[in-house]
Amino acid sequence: MIAWPETLTREVAKRRCVFFLGAGVSASATSPSGKRPKAWLEFLTEACACVRDTQKKMQIGRFITERKYLLALQAIKDEVDPGDYQELLNQNFNEPVFEASKLHEIIFALDSRLVITTNFDKIYEKHCLNVSTEGFKVIPYNSTSLADELRSDTRLIIKAHGSIDEISAMIFTRGQYHSAKRDNPGFYGLLKAIFLLRAS
To answer: 156: number of CA atoms within 13 Å, CB side?
Structure first.
């Protein structure tokens, strides 16, 4: 049993908390066949196998062994055929169709108006849209309407790293992250403000 601080319980009840969903939340989901989303090590090992140059594959393998995961992923993206890379992402973040877990249900039940996630999959938003009687809007990091939506009463799911729906705009590698920060300063300013003022 977790002893929740009274102040936190009150903030949650007043819908003033912002929940941040990372890979651990998605990892709790399962597919109809019982599979779970791959963890970093398993995903990168599979992705590395798509690299055709033997020497570069060995170097990427060393990055993975040394837990330099972002460096390994950048190298994989640079070396793998774009079509193969897109198919790899689709297989891992769009297929099979993962079903929401008890953890997703609990997060939904806590009734926060703002949920921020770095996950590319759509597990949580699909669950919300399926079971909620209220409307939800899913806002990607490159949307120009986030500031207006934050001032509204709409329940928002903010995709801080993009979505599998638009692979070209996903923030996955180190290079993509730096590009996104350069090209979307307004979003990162709003994100910082949310964390400073409302996140728990």
So the answer is: 24
